[in-house]
Fold these 2 entries.
Entry 1:
Amino acid sequence: METDQQPALFDRAHRLTTAGLLMLVTFVAFESMAVATAMPTAVAELDGLAWYAWPFSAFLVASVLGMVLGGDLGDRRGSRVALLTGVAVFAAGLLAGGLAGHMGVLVAARALQGVGGGIISVALYVVAGQAFDVRLRPRLFGAFSAAWVVPALVGPTIAGLLTTHLTWRLVFLALLPLILLGLGLVLPAVRALPRPADGVVVARSRRWWALLAGLGIGALQYAGQRLDLVALALAVAGLVALVAGLRPLVPRGTAAVRPGLPAVVAGRGLLAGAFFGMDVLLPLALTELHGYEAAVAGVPLTAGALGWAAASQLQGRNPLWSRVALLRAGFLLLAAGLLATALVAVPGVGGWPAYLSWAVAGLGMGLGMPSLSVLLLDRSSDETRGADSAAFQIADVTGSAACIGVVGVLVAAAAAGTFALATAVLAGVAVLTAVALTGAVLAPRAGADPAAATDPAVRATTLSAS
């Protein structure tokens, strides 16, 4: 008797592709989590304390450019070329970082890693859209989320051991063979995927707009670290650069959260911003308000990562569930987690609520992020999948940077004695909760009819930008 064979992530047709993609996600995530641990030692050895923030800012600014390049390559040359380019640039950045003898070289290496990581992040979506049908995509994006958990749990510890007992350089160099192994697994399957049709035209000016947007993000982040007239000037200049740079890079109507693809891209920015804004603030609150040691203050972040992974797996096992309903539930859970986290700033309560509340916030991310990824691919054509995926990733970076910038201003004001840190925490929670609730209200717009979302009269992608 014949039975229908249900596709699976690790069946014969998909196992190498799945394994290779997950390895790339895991090792890029490990580098992201581990580098912060190794950076103080690297900066001290290279006598570059004054440059401490630059390796992080360089990565962020360059990643926006990398995302646009990844979208262009995916649409014009196909996912194989995009993956090869991204891994090659990322590997070059790892090698340069591991061999750096001057702080300037380390900053340049981090910029290379940002470009490579941005290309890879977009190429993953292009491959997902080509190699996996709609039934497998929820599981795949759930697996992508889970692939961040192990690096979140062990990345800082491993990096600390390497830095303490061997050398910080191994945090960069030891990843090289592993990244290349992941590429080797996925390339044979990617080679068989269809190449883009001839004649796809991509506006070259998009790369300059991406660089402008990245510089705007960097200026906003730096402005958030200080509280003076220079910070105000930087913030204004950064905001102008960011808005000008983003307009040609995201679908028209993203800022207004128009139904369809614009709402999906905007939703990514709202979800990432609300979560990562508090993710930055929470350890500081526990350390300064309750005297927690760094290791203890980081435990709620681990709880959030575990909640994220658990919810990602749940949604992946139920591909028929409504993605819009899951997205709204994700925003509401995130808002609930944020509100409960505000208890850490209430006198006499202590920091213990964060261990539970941030796990709830993680559950929200685990439902929302994969659902947005599925909706993105549902609303992207083969010809524009790269550009749409780039816009999606750029929204993530932009939303995170904006909310972290707001948190930075509040913390700087508290440090200057304008008000107490507990007040800054409560104000930050209020702003971020409002962002999450806005996302919950607007979530149904992401479920607009895909045909309407791809109508040229409604949707203008970055391919038409000049």
Entry 2:
Amino acid sequence: MKTMVVKIGSSTVVQPGSGVRRAFLADLARQASELRSLGWNLVVVSSGAIACGAPALGFKARPSDMPSLQACASVGQCALSAAYDEEFRQHGLTTSLVLLTRNDTASRSSYLHARDALTRLVELGVVPVVNENDTVAVDEIRFGDNDTLAALVSCLAGADLCVTLSDIDGLYTANPSLDPSARFIAQVERIDAKILASAGDSSSSVGTGGMITKLRASRILMTAGIPSVIASGEAPDALVALARGEAVGTRFVPA
């Protein structure tokens, strides 16, 4: 069995103001079941706790003060985890919740414990759903991003492929929403200054990352020898197509 780590952005899994996108999760669960039949285990790194918790607590937009962000993360994580569990159980798949902070990967002892737990969950046929522990890890809320977390989880799980599902279908030479002459880049073998210059900030009202964080994460993965892909969360059967070796999104190929 191979292992695929998929990172899902807030704007992909949460509909602003209305909560979890159940149709998306239902399709993700269906693909996870099909991936299993193709010889792939799945590990999910899911954003969206704060975006899911904010409307449940009556916020009309993402709050700016830290205690409110922590409260939103706490409430939203429960709703998000329940949604994953319900949709994946429809396909006979068990999910688990794994909350990490960067301290869990900074210490060698903590790193090994996290690795062993994640590896064992996958061996038992579980689909781990990983997120940063935003209720206590205040630095992650202020400066962090789950793109980097997905890269670290890929290393922990010994992944064969890391896929980022976002609101854009891959990397372009410039922001395609601002520059109509922007060209799609199908494959990247080296992340240099020119590639980094093509990145921009997050255009989502519920996300905190952007293409620059995805490129930094891809650089970590390339150093670790793990191929990665940035693709649209709306692309039909993207994960299954990648498992079959088909071209989807932008692929980052390690040296």
